[in-house]
Specification:
Layout: H1 4-7, H2 22-40, H3 44-60, H4 75-78, H5 82-85
């Protein structure tokens, strides 16, 4: 379970508020995970636990899925609000 300490923080990295950066963020996260899996070769249990957590977060549209954007999320409407974005 040592390898989970490198995988679980990936789920906590927030998605950018700017919709233009979502593609870059998802590509970065995808390449990070691919390089981690190829270089460190985590055990099967750790990989399955991480993939199950990723599936549950993305399936429930809890807000931090980097694979795709959930429809019905309030982020696209509020992304243009200056009080949220700041500029």
């Amino acid at each position: 379970m040592y390898c989970l300490q490198w995988l679980l923080p990936v789920l906590l990295i927030p998605k950018p508020l700017n919709p233009a950066l979502w593609f870059n963020h998802s590509m970065f996260m995808g390449f990070y995970l691919l390089s981690f899996l190829l270089e460190r070769k985590p055990c099967t249990i750790c990989a399955l636990v991480f993939l199950a957590a990723l599936f549950l977060i993305c399936y429930s549209c809890w807000g931090n899925c980097f694979l795709y954007h959930c429809h019905g999320s309030p982020l696209p409407d509020s992304a243009h609000d200056p009080s949220i974005v700041g500029t």
